[in-house]
Specification:
The complex is a heterotrimer.
Chain A (H helix, E strand, L loop, with lengths): L14 H10 L2 H18 L1 H4 L37 H36 L6 H10 L4 H12 L3 H28 L2 H8 L4 H37 L11 H8 L8 H34 L1
Helix pairs in contact in A: 1-11, 2-4, 2-11, 4-7, 4-9, 4-11, 6-7, 7-9, 9-10, 9-11, 10-11
Chain B lengths: L1 H28 L4 H6 L6 H11 L5 H13 L13 H36 L4 H15 L2 H15 L22 H7 L5 H39 L2 H8 L4 H38 L5 H10 L3 H29 L1 H10 L1
Helix pairs in contact in B: 1-13, 5-6, 5-9, 5-11, 5-13, 6-9, 7-9, 7-11, 8-9, 9-11, 11-12, 11-13, 12-13, 13-14
Chain C lengths: L1 H20 L8 H4 L1 E6 L14 H11 L4 E4 L4 E4 L2 E7 L4 E6 L19 H12 L14 H5 L2 H4 E8 L2 E6 L6 H5 L9 H10 L15 E7 L3 E6 L12 E6 L3 H10 L4 E3 L6 H6 L3 E7 L2 E7 L9 H10 L2 H9 L3 E3 L22 H11 L4 E7 L10 H14 L2 E6 L3 H9 L5 E7 L6 H8 L1 H6 L9 H12 L3 H18 L2 E14 L2 E2 L15 E2 L1 H6 L1
Parallel strand pairs in C: 1-10, 15-16, 15-17
Antiparallel strand pairs in C: 2-3, 4-5, 5-7, 6-7, 8-9, 9-10, 11-18, 12-18, 13-17, 13-18, 14-18, 19-20
The chains are: A mainly alpha, B mainly alpha, C alpha+beta.
InterPro entries (chain B): BPD_transp_1_N, MetI-like, MetI-like_sf
Family (chain B): Belongs to the binding-protein-dependent transport system permease family. OppBC subfamily.
Pfam family, one (chain B): BPD_transp_1
């Protein structure tokens, strides 16, 4: 049916658009977002971008300094490590482990957690505030501690670290979604829709979800930064990614042995981690500010 | 308040019960023999093994097993380490104390530095000082703690040689371990060199405490700044200002106490974050606390130790959270009302 | 509270100032003057070297807590009297008579006060602990004595008898040319029989290896796992020394941290400094680096009980696949010799047998195809600590992993905490392992029987689980003979057999390094066995004036 514009319509931008408008005015936030975009592209194209294979060992050039120093070699932009592996390639390919895997983790954990949380929020049986309080308290146990216990059961490896982090992130998403849905349910506009006789599914998808999306996005950015840190932390402790995977935390841990001779092997993965987490935090932060600004405007 | 306290304590109790239930389930999930994981006793003697099974009632149904497990746990029988054959419960106390000492000091530093800086940033809102503080705090909580620790070690310990790299105390000081908290142990000891040992212990503490304090401090700065900005906009502040109160009096007497409320509420959560970082900080600084014990335990597949760490650390976090909440409710009765209303 | 917080913050800042200012070492407090910190690489398994073969345990205990009947002087290549003042060989090498030293005190500690001095009963007790399966203490703490089983000493000795209070006879089943060398090794220590009786009477026999009593230069005071071991000077020591008041082992498994702590002065002596950084250290005037030729070998052993390693062709293929020259460069920075055999080139029995195993990936692939293995997936266990023979097994495993990938073999690197690692190895849970061996004495036999004999399979010390009757016969013949030329011929055959069967790939023979503050003297990296602090001296004043 062709859409006939019969009546004057005041198009109200969706909550997400409103927040985006606020967000995009923040230059720092946009810079961080571009950074993340760049990182995402680098990660997706890492095997094409990396000059060498991450595990290729150049026996004749062990521990070469980065190219801008006097001892450097133009073939290896960021130098090589003690086994003669190109640092640039390792950092680029490492983004798969240190950035790609966390994204995957949050995707899976977010999907499961948010669906369950929305269900729990909509259902009537689970509304007891004591239960809510209990969940609050249980979630105060650090996620890393639980991830470590999961690893103790499954044994140290990258796959198990991923499973462990997914498992500990699910309840957090669940709890956040459930709270958000329950908060929205009390709002006037939702009650109005209900009185209009909207079926629950429509209520959830078309009424509530658009309004809680910003909050969920914020929790997702938080989740990504937690996942990145946890993967790197587990790698650093030797409980996550195993050699020769160029995961940044693992690289950092094994670079410590040469910190005196080749400090760049420690500086680079740390810097990469730091910049990634910083970008995500800036985005998450600005998002929160934008949500708050919108709440105050309305 | 009494009712609230009781409710809160009951909640703590229930949470702890759930925790033991989880831990009991884990005992069955860990690889290897459940009885070995529980007791930490390896035996090749089938008779003795049978005896252990009887004692733990592992041949009964799960409920009986759990009750039995809980009884053992409450009696302080946490099994023995598979590596050292020492009772886990006995070794746990000084180790937990070492962690508590580190965490409390770090939290103290974070509060002592973070709150004034947050207030300062709010008061000088928009100035270069504010921007500097906000930027600093953004970097501060994005920097991976294990990287920061290494950088600080390289700078302060190796390059400048001002501070020691790892450990609690120069090992040549013969201080016996009583409580596990190095400062208390040094004070309790009767060695003639107590004071130089205390100074040495403080030097050893400085780097890990600073590293650990970094994240909560930056968080507290941000929370404090936002809360302060919120409060400063309120009418009662405007009214007070209109009445001609001095700016400093306004700040300290009227704005700050109210701005502290969201901060106190957040403290419990900050503590959980702090503990996450404490695990890795302890490993880096060879701090003989729960974190390094747990990681060692995982490497050594020492399940009784892993269980001990899980229970002690979770207990610690939960108790701190409860205390913070109780303090919060006591200090800000209006919150209590909200919670009552909800129930 | 709020105002106080700013006050506190300024207070804290000034405290920081005081701390930083107080850090420059002006005058070391009294207990630090005559105490020495040795940053060791791991926890000892127990405080009794009889129970293990781990170098970490030996370093921590053997020379500090205990004495042996005789010592071996590696420089002069002769045996020195210790708890035995002299000895005679009787009955054509079938009986040895030892005369014991008088007035040797056992340690006085808060858990034991000896009522008598050392005598023949202590020797009998110490030997029977590992020799006699029926002795009360044989089963205490595991009942496994790998060194004695692997060297066959427990089969060789038929009786230990007391002639009088200060004379002991040891009777042998056959004459063995390595017997005295084994007695002088770090494992053949003397325990206190009186202490053992007292423990047994009190019902705590297992404490004998946890709260040790010996006659050595240092007295045990305290052990905190993963933190430290504390020893005090033994004031009644029977010979010269020790010169230091306190000896602390600060347990620092991370090699990099050990290195940094040496630079900052938190460690006085460290074993196994990172070879890559030795050049930086040698430039540093306040730090001495010393090295000693220590007969050792790093090797890659295949668990021959598991497929595909039960096939000698696979083992040979893998030996062709690894680029040893590259390993010597990347891991040892050239400070090691490529191994041509289990025996180092300096040994008189050395035979170069491995010319055939030059780096040749094509040949390796071909052999694998012959054996019928297309793609292969194996585990490499890399030991988590540094040893004289291998400064970084994990990195070596990474190199080998890359080499193997080239011939289509997937390798997974596995590592555990050191004691767990050894326990699992002994149970044979590994596919292949990067480990090695440091000789306990000068006899070439020490490289064969403890490593590859069938007896060593039982004790778990034979990392290849390789039991070959022909090989056992050869090395058994070699020790029964005292004619050096004949022994040389036999060892030559043994080495050829190993090269043909390749239960393990010898990789390198390395120097043993040790770094210390310039103010410390009198500690040499030992050629055989563990480090000794008996003659260590500290002269802090001299260096602090510089």
């Amino acid at each position: 049916m062709p859409k006939a514009n019969l009546y004057y319509q005041d198009r109200v931008p969706s909550p997400l658009t409103l927040i985006w408008q606020n967000f995009s005015r923040n230059r720092l936030a946009m810079a961080a977002l571009y950074c993340l975009g760049l990182l995402l592209i680098t990660m997706l194209a890492s095997h094409a971008l990396a000059p060498y294979d991450a595990n290729q060992q150049f026996a004749e050039s062990l521990s070469v300094a980065p190219s801008w120093t006097d001892a450097g070699d133009m073939r290896y932009l960021f130098g090589t490590d003690d086994l003669g592996r190109d640092m640039l390639s390792r950092i680029i390919i490492g983004s798969i482990y240190s950035f790609g895997y966390p994204l995957l983790i949050v995707l899976v954990a977010g999907f499961i957690g948010i669906s369950l949380g929305a269900l729990a929020g909509m259902s009537r049986g689970l509304k007891s505030s004591s239960l809510n309080h209990l969940l609050d308290v249980l979630l105060s146990i650090p996620s890393l501690l639980l991830a470590l216990v999961v690893i103790a059961i499954l044994g140290p490896s990258l796959e198990n670290a991923v499973i462990a982090i997914v498992l500990v992130l699910i309840p957090q998403f669940l709890h956040a979604t459930r709270n958000a849905v329950r908060d929205e349910l009390k709002r006037d506009y939702v009650i109005a829709s209900r009185l209009n006789g909207v079926p629950p599914r429509y209520l959830l998808w078309r009424v509530i979800l658009p309004n809680i999306t910003p909050v969920l996005v914020m929790h997702i950015t938080l989740g990504i930064s937690t996942a990145i840190l946890d993967i790197a932390l587990l790698g650093f402790l030797g409980l996550g990614a195993q050699a020769p995977a160029p995961e940044w935390g693992t690289m950092l841990a094994r670079s410590l042995d040469q910190v005196y001779v080749s400090p760049w092997t420690m500086a680079l993965p740390g810097l990469a981690l730091f910049l990634t987490i910083l970008s995500i935090n800036v985005v998450g932060d600005s998002l929160r500010a934008a949500i708050k600004a919108r709440a105050e405007e309305s | 308040m009494l009712f609230f306290t009781l409710r809160r304590l009951l909640l703590l109790l229930i949470t702890l019960l759930i925790l033991t239930l989880v831990s009991f389930t884990l005992m069955h999930l860990y690889p290897g023999d459940t009885i070995v994981n529980m007791t930490g006793i390896r035996t090749t003697d089938p008779l003795f093994y049978e005896q252990l099974v009887q004692q733990r009632q592992l041949d009964e149904n799960l409920l009986v097993q759990y009750v039995n497990y809980l009884t053992h746990l409450l009696q302080g029988d946490w099994g023995q380490s598979l590596v050292t054959n020492q009772a886990v419960a006995n070794s746990a106390l000084p180790i937990l104390m070492a962690t508590i000492e580190l965490c409390l000091l770090a939290m103290l530093v974070a509060m002592v530095l973070g709150i004034p800086l947050g207030v300062l940033a709010a008061v000088k809102r928009g100035s270069w000082l504010d921007k500097l503080i906000v930027m600093k705090s953004l970097t501060g909580y994005s920097i991976p703690v294990f990287w920061l620790a290494q950088l600080l070690i390289l700078l302060f310990a190796v390059q400048l040689n001002w501070l020691p790299i790892t450990g609690q105390l120069n090992p040549l000081y013969d201080i016996s371990v009583n409580t596990g908290s190095v400062l208390i142990d040094v004070m309790l000891s009767e060695q003639p060199y107590r004071w130089s040992a205390l100074l040495d212990a403080l030097q050893h503490l400085l780097l890990p405490v600073v590293v650990l304090a970094m994240m909560p401090m930056t968080m507290l700065i941000r929370i404090m700044r936002n809360a302060m900005l919120d409060v400063l906009k309120r009418n009662y502040i405007k009214a007070a200002r209109a009445r001609g109160l001095s700016e400093s009096r306004l700040l300290w007497k009227h704005a700050l106490p109210n701005a502290m409320q969201p901060l106190v509420r957040q403290l419990g959560f900050q503590f959980s974050l702090l503990l996450t970082n404490a695990i890795v900080t302890e490993v880096i600084f060879n701090w003989p606390g729960m974190g390094s014990w747990l990681v060692k335990g995982i490497f050594e597949r020492d399940y009784p130790v892993i269980q001990g760490c899980l229970i002690s650390l979770a207990l610690f976090v939960l108790v701190v959270n409860t205390l913070v909440e109780l303090y919060h409710a006591w200090r800000y009765p209006q919150v209590r009302q909200e919670l009552y209303a909800e129930s | 509270m709020k105002i106080r917080s700013t006050l506190l913050s300024t207070g804290w800042l000034s405290l920081v100032g005081v701390l930083l200012a107080g850090c420059q070492p002006q005058q070391r407090p009294e207990p630090l003057q005559q105490g020495l910190i040795y940053c060791s690489e791991g926890n000892p398994e127990s405080f009794n070297p009889q129970l293990g073969t781990s170098g970490t345990t030996i370093d921590a205990t053997a020379a500090q807590l205990y004495d042996r009947l005789l010592d071996y002087d590696a420089d002069e290549k002769r045996f020195l009297p210790a708890l035995a003042t002299d000895w005679q060989v009787l009955d054509d090498g079938h009986r040895y008579r030892f005369h014991l030293r008088h007035d040797v005190q056992f340690h006085h500690t808060d858990y034991f006060s000896p009522s008598r001095t050392f005598n023949a009963d202590d020797v009998l007790f110490s030997f029977r602990r590992w020799l006699d399966k029926n002795s009360a203490y044989h089963r205490v703490n595991g009942g496994s004595y790998p060194f004695f089983t692997a060297t066959g000493l427990d089969q060789l000795i038929t009786a230990v008898t007391k002639v009088d209070d200060y004379t002991v006879d040891i009777e042998l089943q056959y004459s063995d040319s390595s017997f005295l060398a084994n007695l002088a090794s770090d494992f053949a220590i003397i325990l206190s029989a009186e202490y053992a009786q007292q423990l047994q009477a009190n019902g705590y026999p297992e404490r004998i290896d946890r709260l040790p009593i010996g006659t050595g230069p240092f007295v045990f005071e305290q052990f905190r796992k993963d933190v430290l071991i504390r020893y005090q000077r033994n004031p009644d020591y029977w010979r010269e020394g020790p010169y230091i008041e306190q000896l602390v082992y600060s347990i620092t498994p991370n090699a990099n941290k050990r290195m940094l702590k040496l630079l900052t002065g938190e460690c006085d002596v460290i074993p196994y400094p990172l070879i890559s950084e030795i050049d930086t250290l040698v430039d540093n005037r306040s730090i001495d680096v010393s090295s000693e030729i220590s007969p050792n070998v790093a090797f890659w052993a295949f668990n021959t009980e598991r497929p595909p390693f039960d096939d000698a062709r696979v083992r040979r293929a893998l030996s062709y696949a690894i680029n040893q020259a590259a390993i010597i460069q990347a891991i040892y920075y050239g400070n090691a010799k490529q191994a041509d055999s289990l025996l180092p080139q300096t040994s008189w029995a050395f035979a170069n047998v491995s010319e055939a195993y030059e780096y040749n990936p094509a040949r390796a692939r071909q052999l694998l195809d012959e054996a019928g293995y297309g793609r292969l997936s194996i585990d490499i266990w890399a030991m988590p600590v540094q040893r004289a023979y291998n400064p970084n097994a994990y990195r070596m495993a990474e190199l080998i992993q890359a080499d193997l990938a080239r011939i289509g073999v997937d390798a997974h690197i596995i590592s555990y905490e050191w004691n767990t690692f050894r326990r699992r190895l002994a149970r044979g849970e590994h596919d292949s392992v990067l480990i090695g061996w440091s000789a306990d004495n000068a006899d070439p036999d020490n490289f064969f029987r403890p490593l590859l004999s069938c007896a060593a399979v039982a004790t778990g010390n034979n990392r290849a689980n390789w039991c070959n009757a022909a090989f056992d016969n050869i090395i058994f013949d070699a020790i029964s003979s005292s004619d050096r030329e004949q022994r040389q011929r036999l060892y030559d055959r043994a080495q050829r057999l190993v090269a043909e069967q390749m239960p393990l790939v010898p990789i390198a023979h390395s120097l043993r390094y040790q770094a210390s503050q310039a103010s410390i003297s009198g500690i040499k990296p030992p050629a055989y066995g563990g480090i000794s602090f008996r003659q260590a001296r500290i002269d802090r004043a001299a260096t602090e004036e510089q």
